[in-house]
Specification:
The chain has about 80 residues and is an alpha+beta fold. The protein contains two helices and four strands; from the N terminus they run ββββαα. The protein has a four-stranded antiparallel sheet with strand order 1-2-3-4, with helices on one face. α1 packs antiparallel against α2.
């Protein structure tokens, strides 16, 4: 499991990223926002970011979505 920090509305929040090898996915959780997402490890970094933004867009503004997605994809691309 990876744990990173991201900034949402000027607050630092933990993000947990679990690579699920059997399913070939990442499970991402932001507990402070009651948010979780599962997406394919086969997606390109750009497609991963887009998938994350699409799901976060319901709970925050676009600029914040993009920053959080960038933090998450940066962490998964270096695993």
């Amino acid at each position: 499991m990876l744990q990173i920090q991201t900034s949402i509305n000027d607050a630092r929040m933990p993000v947990f990223i679990v690579p699920h090898e059997e399913r070939g996915t990442y499970i991402v959780s932001i507990p402070d926002m009651n948010f979780s997402l599962e997406y394919s490890q086969d997606l390109s970094e750009a497609d991963q970011a887009e998938e994350i933004v699409l799901h976060l867009f319901n709970v925050m503004d676009e600029e914040t979505c993009e920053a959080v997605a960038r933090d998450i994809t940066r962490a998964t691309s270096t695993k």
